Amino acid sequence: SLTAGIVGLPNVGKSTLFNAITKAGAEMANYPFATIDPNVGMVEVPDQRLTRIDELIPAKKLVHTTFEFTDIAGIVKGASKGEGLGNKFLENIRQVDAIVHVVRAFDDPNVTHVSNKVDPLDDIETINLELILADLESINKRYERVEKVARTKDKEAVAEFNVLKKIKPVLEAGKSVRSLEFDEDEQKIVKGLFLLTSKPVLYVANIAEDDMAQPQECEYVQQIQQYAQQEGSETLAVSAKTEEEIAQLDEGDKLDFLEAEGVEESGLDRLIKAAYKLLGLATFFTAGGKETRAWTFKQGMKAPQVAGIIHSDFERGFIRAETISFTDLDKYGSLAAVREAGRLRLEGKEYVVQDGDIIEFRFNV
Ligand code: GDP
User: Which residues form the OBG-type G domain (predicted)?
Assistant: First the structure.
């Protein structure tokens, strides 16, 4: 399954945030403690649609879909030329599908900063520079070889060389590959290069509790946002310390706490949703009977493939997907009413499943 890796300089609040994640995960119903790597934190994906579906199509049990964060260990600075821990840092990033980059955006004289000053842009650039250098090294390794083959007019080599030519100067200028735009064919080539700076990134500004009600007014947040925007990335402001406290509360206390802070949703819930989106994930539902359940699929997947997420037999024997959208169920108020309105769809093998679809798969056994 796809995972988002948490990275950041030392002392910016990564462990605090990761603790919040694992604590929230520990509250989950069927939490498979024993099987989990200590660097992996599993959380439920908050989704209010599940409760609404249960109201309209009652089931014995509600099951949320889950999602994994990975805590990226290792030393950042000098990683690209380094051995040991530095290399491990880059290797760990290579394994994840998206990056959650935690940046310190709080002042606190009691918490040492690695470079003795709180400077979000400098922090971001320190990490990104290591990733850029590592990518430049991979690109340089291929460059001459691919150029040679491209001279023979080999089509694939020409296409790849054009991509390399586009990427190289950008990296040399100290920018991430994700700041470039690629067409569909180029995207495939870029994917095959396994670069670090082409992975999607979410910047998480770790703000002071005092800034929680109005994060937009925090100058650090504004700086991070500005940087993120120019490479097409998003920024999320959370207070890791507060999230760690919230994660230990039960649901009722949590809601009271959030209300008192003047926020609707916990930072962790926002983070989970943002990371889910960052990975291109979406949710479909199965409803009624034993359980109503949310499932994760990758956007763009077709019905048989999605059926295979539930069980491989569903994919092999796929006949059709009887589908209604959550929006329709919510609007018409019952399954019967949705049917009556002609909004039940019989979808076939080529159907691209949409976020919020409620599906009953028909299959041969
Ligand atoms: P890591 O090295 O990035 O994993 O950082 P830690 O999570 O261990 O945090 C480093 C220190 O900063 C710890 O003493 C935390 O308690 C403190 N810290 C983390 N988040 C916050 C925050 O939002 N506000 C304040 N004031 N301190 C924080």
Answer: 2-258
Same domain, 264 and 304: no
Give the closest residue to 101 by CA, choosing from 192, 181, 23, 176.
176
Q: What is the pLDDT of residue 82?
A: 66
Residue 151: predicted pLDDT: 95
Is 107 part of a structural domain of the chain?
yes
Among 114, 210, 218, 241, which residue has the most ligand 1 atoms within 8 Å of its CB, making it the best to mutate?
241
Structural contact between residues 205 and 224, judged by C-beta atoms closer than 8 angstroms: yes
Atom of ligand 1 nearest to the CA of 17: 7
Q: How far is the CA of 123 from the centre of ligand 1 (A)?
A: 15
Identify the domain containing residue 50 by its residue range. Answer: 3-114+198-278
Residue where a domain terminates, one of 144, 168, 192 = 192
Probe ligand 1: pick from 6, 11, 127, 246, max atoms within 8 Å of CB?
11
Strands 281-286 and 289-298: antiparallel
Is residue 80 within 8 Å of residue 197, measured between CB atoms? no
What CATH number does the domain containing 185 carry?
Answer: 1.10.150.300
Q: How far apart are CA 157 and CA 159, in angstroms?
A: 5
- CB 220 near ligand 1, within 6 Å: no
Q: Which of 15, 16, 104, 236 to mutate to test the pocket of ligand 1 (most atoms within 8 A of CB)?
A: 16
Ligand 1 proximity of 15 Cβ (cutoff 6 Å):
yes
pLDDT (0 to 100) of residue 35: 52
Report residue 34's pLDDT band, with 50, 70 and 90 as the boundaries: very low
Which residue, by CA, sits nearest to atom 2 of ligand 1?
11
Rg (CA), the chain: 23
CATH number at residue 259: 3.40.50.300
Q: What is the pLDDT of residue 83?
A: 60
